[in-house]
Amino acid sequence: MSKNSLTVTDNRNGKSYEIPIENETIRAIDLRQMKVADEDFGLMTYDPAFINTASCKSKITFIDGDQGILEYRGIPIEQLAEKSTYLETAHLLITGELPNVNQLKDWTNHVTHHTYVHENVKKFMDGFHHDAHPMGMLVSAMAALSTFYPHAKNIHDPEERRMTIYRIIGKISTLAAFAYRHSLGMPYVYPDNDLSYSGNFLNMLFRMAEPKYQPNPVLEHALDVLFILHADHEQNCSTSAMRSIGSSHVDPYSAMAGAISALYGPLHGGANEAVLKMLQEIGSKDKIPDFIKKVKAGEGKLMGFGHRVYKNYDPRAKIIKKTADQVFEVTGHNPLLEIALELEKIALEDEYFIKRKLYPNVDFYSGLIYQAMRFPVSMFPVLFAIPRAAGWMAQWEEMITDADQKIARPRQIYLGHRQRDYVPIGKRN
Ligand code: ACO
Question: What CA–CA distances, in Å, run from 333 to 325, 369, 372, 378?
Answer without folding.
Answer: 9, 10, 8, 21
